Amino acid sequence: MIPPLPPLAALRAFAAVARAGSFARAATQLHVSTSAVSHQIRGLEAQLGTPLLTRARNGAGHSQTAPTAAGQTLLEAVEAALTMLAESCAGIRAEAGRPRARLVVCANGSVASLWLAPRLAAFAGLHPSVDWHMRAVEAGSPDLAAEGIDLAILRARTGQIPPGDSLLFEERMFPVASPAVAAEVARLGRSTALARLSLLEEEHSADSPDKDWRHWLAHLGEAVPAPRLIRFSGFNQAIGAALAGAGIALGRSPLLDAELAAGRLVRLFAPEALAGTWVFTLRLGPAAARDPHVRQLSDFLRTPSSG
Length: 307
Known about the structure:
LysR_HTH_N; DNA-binding; WH-like_DNA-bd_sf
């Protein structure tokens, strides 16, 4: 005989609080009051006979609500069970001819095409019950609820990550070129190559020196009075030109890790590198509270081996 289980609503509330790190944020995601969430968690802890969450304290102690050791064990089980339930329900809907769940993921153009696309395709292959849609969004902070976005990868200044977002990755910048151009650089030597070859640069603001070739030349200690600069409106275009052998571009890791690993691009002047001006964060939309696939994808994207 199966022992009595806690109410599903209480388990969903617990998972939402554990992931959001806040009773208030979890309540917003679940579209209920904070007191309702708190009541469900207290009932769940009473039924299981142990604390499941540490409570955040203002000014001291824990900076946010987090699972205890017992809570972490329960969280993993709850999320696995919710995923299985979602997959089963999706299969039943499919057999009944009803449409599958549709989830939308977004990032800016370069992150979407160079980093997110292969990872989303790999994850979608593991979760075929969902229709996944990827959207390129350049807005700094889109309204996820209004625009129907379930998970967003967004830019933020280092040390200025918005509340509720979580760090996904930081960038490292370094020069890259095609194998043929890299061989020409080796033949000419660094100073001559930087003076003679085209330097490919994306348009950028003055507060992003890591994307500026003049800043890089100073960093490398190279005096090039009139560098042959070619500017592009976006990172993808500059990298496309580099892949075609048009010159040397300023590349970014991890966006170009696949191109480097495949040998389509070569890193130049190692170990010279600069930290990127921006970091990239994950922000979850309202669907995270009702569809476990959103959390599953978030965890998958954080896994180094997902690429």
